[in-house]
Amino acid sequence: MEFNQFNEHVNRLKASNPIWFDLDGAPIGTKAEIETVEKQLNISLPEDYKEFIEAFGGGYFAFTVIFSVSAESEWNIANQNQSLDYPH
């Protein structure tokens, strides 16, 4: 599924089931925040993930949690990996 199709699907779901998306989430990620996380973890994040983060942000999203690139988010992907002592 192309991202624009996914985005349209999300918008339809938000319209029909807004409560699924009412939980607090992390803010939309910026290119600079994505680059910071990539440097912190010494990785290149997948393009699909970056596109998602730039459109929707992280945190709670419908029935799942998406790791965030926002430094202040409890779901910050770099902090979560470092707290697990994940090698990078």
Description:
- The chain is mostly helical and 88 residues long.
- It has one domain.
- Helices cover 48% and strands 7% of the residues.
- It contains four helices and two strands.
- The chain has a two-stranded antiparallel sheet.
Question: What's this, in brief?
Answer:
The protein is 48% helix and 7% strand. The chain is mainly α and 88 residues long.
List the helices and strands and how they pair.
Layout: H1 3-16, H2 31-41, H3 47-56, E1 59-61, E2 64-66, H4 77-83
Antiparallel strand pairs: 1-2
Strand adjacency order, main sheet: 1-2
Q: What is the succession of H and E elements?
A: HHHEEH
Number of strands: 2
Shape from CA axes?
Answer: globular
Evaluate the radius of gyration. 14 Å
> How many domains would you count in the coordinates?
1
Give the strand content. Answer: 5-15%
Secondary-structure-based class equals: mainly alpha
Enumerate the spans where pLDDT stays under 50 for 5 or more consecutive residues.
none
What's the number of helices? Answer: 4
Helix content: 40-55%
Largest β-sheet summary: 2 strands, antiparallel
Distance between the termini: 30 Å
Rounded mean pLDDT score: 89
